[in-house]
Specification:
Elements: H1 5-12, E1 20-22, E2 25-28, E3 35-43, E4 49-59, E5 63-71, H2 79-85, E6 94-95, H3 111-124
Antiparallel strand pairs: 1-2, 2-3, 3-4, 4-5, 4-6
Length: 144
């Protein structure tokens, strides 16, 4: 089963400029900056199982500046879904093992993830949420 990444990120509704999905990865970038945001599903040790999203702030000239792993379980993404399904594992993961049916993330509450992503971007690289003019270069500084 595909992850239906385009639909997932559309539903996530991030307030970032110039966002697009390529394959299963979301990219955002302001037109006047070399800074990019990459968001992808974070794999677990199990094949085709994902426990969250992996974020990376990347400078096209300097490489990766910052990363974060946002686990679904830490942001309440699947609490309601898992309770309704009585899945019992309580780990809040998605699996793309089946070929038909609903997207593997169906039933997700994306509010906590959206808030965490916006906060991460605002702290790690404000240029992504407040694009500057070409006359005001505002490089993102990597956290150490």
């Amino acid at each position: 089963m595909p992850l239906y990444a385009q639909e997932f990120f559309d539903r996530l509704d991030l307030p970032l400029p110039f966002g697009t999905v390529v394959g299963d990865v979301y990219y955002a970038n302001p037109t006047d900056s070399s800074i990019r945001l990459r968001i992808e599903f974070a794999r677990t040790i199990m094949d085709r199982q994902y426990d969250g999203l992996r974020l990376a702030v990347i400078d096209t000239e300097r490489g990766t500046l910052d990363t974060a792993h946002l686990r679904f379980s830490e942001h309440g993404t699947f609490i309601r879904r898992d309770a309704e399904r009585r899945s019992g594992d309580g780990r809040g993961v998605i699996r793309d093992w089946h070929q038909d049916g609903l997207p593997p993330w169906a039933g997700a509450d994306l509010t906590g993830l959206r808030t965490a992503i916006v906060t991460f971007v605002q702290v790690s690289c404000p240029v992504l949420t407040a694009p500057r003019s070409f006359a005001e270069p505002g490089p993102c500084v990597a956290r150490r």
